[in-house]
Amino acid sequence: VEDTVLLEWDEESKEEKKIKILTNPTPGLDVRTKGSDLTKDTLIMRAGTKLSPADVGILASVGITRVSVVQKPKVAVLSTGNEVMDPFS
């Protein structure tokens, strides 16, 4: 917002349509290096964590681009005779 001039805006929605930036960008400004927001030996996440989009972002922020994953096991129960009994008998 600093170093800008509002040139055009939408009366109805009050949204900015056009601005003029008064300064040149500084290369590298506000760019963090990977892992710069964590200390050494910080546990990022535990094994077995179900990854959310936020978790993927955290991993990317420390330079991790590949992780080992396991598929949830699939279980089936097959009844072939009288081994299944009524629990109320």
TrEMBL record:
What InterPro entries does the record tag this protein with? Answer: MoeA-like, MoeA_linker/N, MoeA_linker/N_sf
Q: Where is the MoeA N-terminal and linker domain?
A: 4-63
> Pathway, per Swiss-Prot/TrEMBL?
Cofactor biosynthesis; molybdopterin biosynthesis
Q: Give the keywords, sorted.
A: Magnesium, Metal-binding, Molybdenum, Molybdenum cofactor biosynthesis, Transferase
Give the matching Gene3D superfamilies: Molybdopterin biosynthesis moea protein, domain 2 (3.90.105.10)
The record lists the catalysed reaction(s) as: adenylyl-molybdopterin + molybdate = Mo-molybdopterin + AMP + H(+); molybdopterin + ATP + H(+) = adenylyl-molybdopterin + diphosphate
What processes in GO biological process is this protein linked to?
Answer: Mo-molybdopterin cofactor biosynthetic process
**Named cofactor requirement(s):** Mg(2+)
Q: What does this protein do?
A: Catalyzes two steps in the biosynthesis of the molybdenum cofactor. In the first step, molybdopterin is adenylated. Subsequently, molybdate is inserted into adenylated molybdopterin and AMP is released.
- Quote the protein name from its UniProt record: MoeA N-terminal and linker domain-containing protein
Q: Source organism lineage? A: Eukaryota, Metazoa, Ecdysozoa, Arthropoda, Crustacea
